[in-house]
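Lab manual, section 2.4: Encoding a predicted structure.

Procedure: take the sequence of the chain (88 residues), apply the prediction step described in section 2.3, and record the output as structure tokens. A sample record is shown.
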Amino acid sequence: QELWARACSSWDVILAEKDVSGTTLVVCHGALGRCLIGAALGMDVSMFRDSAFVLENCALVEIVFEDGVGVKWRRVLPEPTEFSRPLA
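Recorded output:
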């Protein structure tokens, strides 16, 4: 729960920046990375146990935001994947 709260507050800080447009790099460990993906996509903490969100060492993930809300994500490295289906 603490890690999830940290992920949510991290997005609040990042998205509050006036110059956030285009690309922003966020570097973190796998567990926080999973929480960041879920929090960005508006999911709840239960997604943490979903194996679809497991991140390999040195993984690079892209999250697409529209109007400050994460709408889809994909792995870029080590093996590229397709974007997840946009959330309704």
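Check your result against the sample. The CA atoms of residues 74 and 80 lie 7 Å apart.
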